[in-house]
Amino acid sequence: MTIIPHAMVGAALGRLFFRKRYLAFLAGITSHILLDAVPHWDYLTVKAGTINTALAVTGIAFFALRFKDPYLFWGGAGAMIPDIEVAAKALGLSNYPLYFPTHSGAIPHVQVSPWWGIPVQVLLSLACILLIFKNEKLGLARKRTKSQSALLR
Ligand SMILES: [Zn+2]
């Protein structure tokens, strides 16, 4: 799957469910496997990958700072990190084989047409962004100690 839905799903998981950074990070990595296992569309150019990665990183940084939420950040980071090997290969920086199970072929990575592959990923990303915001609006955001909130200030 493309990097923005990966990042947003990881961020939403971190924000909604976790109080430990490493657990949010592991949930992000796990979500990467699950999303890649769903038949999807992937962009095929380095330019598209670069633009999408810039948007995803900016989005995660913005939300983490906006909500002072380190778990959101680590969830998003965990969800994006597996694609570093794909990016390194696309940029010609790596000759190593791909190791991550959905990239190596150990878990099938089925491609579909962009005609439904793109709308599904846009809707998934928007739904996660909505959850990230709604979590605050409903007052469900985890209560934090002052020292935890201070970490992202
Ligand atoms: Zn991937």
Structure description:
The chain is mainly alpha-helical. The chain has one domain. Helix content is 68%, strand content 0%. It contains eight helices and no strands. The radius of gyration is 16 Å and the shape is globular. Bound molecules: zinc ion (ZN). Residues 32, 36, 82-83, 86, 102-103 line the site of zinc ion. Zinc ion binds at residues 32, 36, 82-83, 86, 102-103.
Helix count, DSSP H or I runs of 4 or more residues = 8
User: Residue-averaged pLDDT, rounded?
Assistant: 89
Structure summary, number of beta strands? 0
What proportion of the residues form beta strands (DSSP E)? under 5%
SS content category: mainly alpha
The main sheet comes to: none
**N-to-C terminal Cα separation, in Å?**
32 Å
Q: What proportion of the residues is helical, as a percent range?
A: 55-70%
Summarize the structure.
With 153 residues, this protein is an all-alpha fold. It has helices at 3-17, 21-37, 46-66, 70-80, 84-90, 101-104, 114-137, 146-150. It starts with a helix and ends with a helix.
Give structural attributes.
153 residues; globular; 8 helices; binds zinc ion
Compile the SSE list and pairings:
Layout: H1 3-17, H2 21-37, H3 46-66, H4 70-80, H5 84-90, H6 101-104, H7 114-137, H8 146-150
